[in-house]
Amino acid sequence: MPHDEVVRGARLAVDVGSVRVGLAASDPDGLVATPVATLARDTPGRKERRVPTDVAAIVHEAGERGAAVVYVGLPRHLSGAEGAASAAARAYSVGLAQAVAPVPVRLVDERMSTVTAHQALQASGRSGRRHRQVVDQAAAVVILQYALDAERATGRRPGELVDVDRSQHGRGAHGGPAGDGRATVE
Fold it and tell me: Which terminus of the chain has a smaller tally of CB atoms within 10 A, N or C?
């Protein structure tokens, strides 16, 4: 079976931030994206060999929902160029892919997801202070909805497959860089 073939099963989406991680999920048919949680980002020290609590929560959610794929938002500049936030999301996706295997992890373009999430929250009447509590979840919903729409339009999974086998040169499942910190594309 090709890696980008769409099969039935819940989809998860992750919005990776330096402080928080937003999580969203879909139904098994991939019709609707809904917010799940905002997780505190856990970054173990260099010598610690444990799975971060945020990654463990995502792994648990993937198992509970029978996830077919996990999408991780890849932040890019409006020009399409990648910066430090992209490198951090790529590194995070490698650690997540190792932890959630054999469920595939795919990086999808998330340009403007946080802006879109803020606009949606403001339109729903949430105050600016209350945005921080849920904006990461809302951004994950935007990422997932983009992926679901792309699946329906193309019949394929969008984004870059995070290839764990080629990324095992680094620190491993705690989200640190593997090799040069970039996930490989298949």
Answer: N
Contact 49, 171 (CB under 8 A): no
State the residue range of the domain holding 88.
Answer: 10-167
Q: In the predicted model, is pLDDT for residue 154 greater than 90?
A: yes
pLDDT in tens, 65-87: 999 999 999 998 777 788 888 99
User: Residue 4 falls within a domain, yes or no?
Assistant: no
Q: Is the pLDDT of residue 167 over 70?
A: no
For position 41, what pLDDT does the model report? 92
Q: Residue 73: which of 155, 159, 3, 6 has the closest Cα?
A: 159
Q: Is 33 helix (H, G, I), strand (E, B) or coil?
A: strand
Strand duo 105-109 + 160-161: pairing: antiparallel
CA 47 distance to own-chain centroid: 25
From residue 59, alpha-carbon distances to 56, 64, 95, 167 in Å are: 5, 9, 11, 19
Count of the separate structural domains present in the chain? 1
